Amino acid sequence: MRTDYEDRIQKLIDQMTLEEKAGQLRQCGPSLVGAFGVSFEELVNMMFDGKISQEEFDRQMGSARQDFREEELRNGCIGSYNGIADAATANRLQKIAIEETRMGIPLLFGCDVIHGLRTVMPIPLAESCAWDPKLWEKTARVAAREATAAGIHMTFSPMVDVAKDARWGRVSEGAGEDVLLNSCYGAAKVRGYQSDDLAKEDSMAACVKHFAGYGAAEAGRDYNRVDMSMQRFFEEYLPPYEACIKAGARAVMPAFNDINGVPCSVNRWLLRDILREKWGFDGMTVSDSNAIAECVSHGVAKDQADAAKRAILAGMDMDMASDSYHQYLVELVKTGEVAEEKLDQAVANVLRIKFELGLFDHPYQASQDREREELLKPEYRRLAREAAASSMVLLKNDRILPLQKDAKIGIVGALADDRAQMLGTWAFEGKGEDCVSIVDACRARGVSFTYIKGQDAAVDIESINKMAESCSVIVAAVGEKKEESGEAASRASITIPKEQTEVLKALKKTGKPVVAVLFNGRPLAIPWIAEHVDAVLEAWHPGVEAGNAVLDLLFGAVNPSGKLTVTFPYTSGQCPMYYAHIPTGRPGGKSKFTSKYLDTPLEPVYPFGYGLSYTTYEYSGLKIQQSEQGVSVSVKVKNTGKRDGAEIVQCYIRDMAAERARPVRQLAAFEKVFLKAGEEVETRFFIPYENLGYYNSRMDYIVETGWFEAAAGRNCADCLSSLFEYTGQ
Ligand code: NOJ
Hints:
By secondary structure, the chain is α/β, with parallel strands linked by helices.
């Protein structure tokens, strides 16, 4: 139940000066004062411009002092901080806000808690492969417990940007290429972060991002333009944000990109018409970092003051990092360019979330005691291990896995013993020392192994051959470093480094079976591995329990159940590649004049929804029953192997003929079912007719009568299917 704070909000606004109002809309990060005596921003620029090296930059950062602009805080010019994750600092600053500012309004602390604070869970893309909303919610709950103990009130998560282009580095931060999965994932995260009452000391507000369509950045290049039809935008990109709002998310971060030429930060249609009017959102919007000022570079604002004016008028409440509001809002109101009422609306949205979080009554929710108690609890680590094991996807297994208990393993690859790399992108509070690498886990369990790092360096054939003599199986850790995915980490070529392939080739030559364990933050183009390596386990960047989870799967203590939420192409040139595409007039076939490539297969290496297990499942008895409200699709799934397991059963729909062409397959529902060896269950999905619709050329959402295909199966390319007719309700 949401309490109505509107009277209290209005009373506060009535007493505030223009400066104090602008202050509430300003979010600052601690600025770093370095030995060079330049600001953090200048230091970053110096590195980007090549004036100082990365090492020098890191050295400067290490010796830099944090400046929290306390004088400005005292003057009521700061309403929120970003990036503070320690209770002592948060409480010290909060005390200044409460006791030393004229209005005594509490601060709001925001932070990027993307996949856990200290107990770093698998990256979001990995976790999405568990297809398990309950798990997604549980890991978010743990993140909220830890983060709130460390003084954080709001996380800039979930990211629900549907991402169909594997070149985009931020594909790692969301739930992959599917609109339904992103919606379910986002809603579960919101529930987990916020719980049932935002005012509880361990609840944290969810800030949904990046609104909207950021995942469609052209050519997969970060921050790039997004240009698409409104129909596509509404069908394939907007629903996950709406699902998060429906789940109660109290904050939204507009995206860096433009939509059809208008940057989201100043996009009134997006921020007012869609978000507030259409979806009824009454929470707070906060810009992405420096995004308001960047509207000058976008070419839509003549200067920063103009950018500030456009942003506030469009409905951007809080300015993260650019100081455009701080510098220009008061003047813009005084000159009448911005009506004070617009400013007041934004302030009200900021105050509302502070009330909802209970900050006016309990401004000091964090404490060092809570920090000590909450961070990295054993039960959180257990959950991290479960999450990591459920996230991993067995891509190939030529009867090598699970390994025998007494297997003698030759382990190869730097990633097998690089703890910090296991954290993945966006894990600032995560510590390498908290992580368990594959080598650590082998040591702890008394597994018989030899380890050679052997990659990133010339292939040392001699030591590989020597190692092979004494082992029964080789485990090679390959993939990407954590810095190679995430923000500003787009790649034009999504392969693994040449050296790693060379090592794998040398390993294969030894004649010993080779298992590749992939650590990466995006789909990789790995056709050689798929063809030649005996077994492939996609481990992603699995978080603090990486090594334990990998061994759980390799030795079969856990039966793999993860399935891909992104398509794995043969080559980067196929990107964007995704399963829910529209058919062409000339679907790929044998004839030359069909839609395909001359030099690459048309199909992916691994399709969406794909993943193996140590048992086998048989699908049969697809049944379709129609009622007045919708169609129910049921299918029998039998565990035909010798091990218990979990199977992710997927249901897809296709509209066979419509005014606007519809995707060849569209995920309509899914369920993870647990089956004992030999057990059979019937899984039933109910799809309301209203879900079968789409936006026609006039942008009306319509459900057309006619023939549809319903399919159910183990992945998007392997389903039982049948037609049914919708004749109207
Ligand atoms: C930039 C990123 O785009 C966004 O996701 C993040 O929340 C902010 N910076 C704050 O760190």
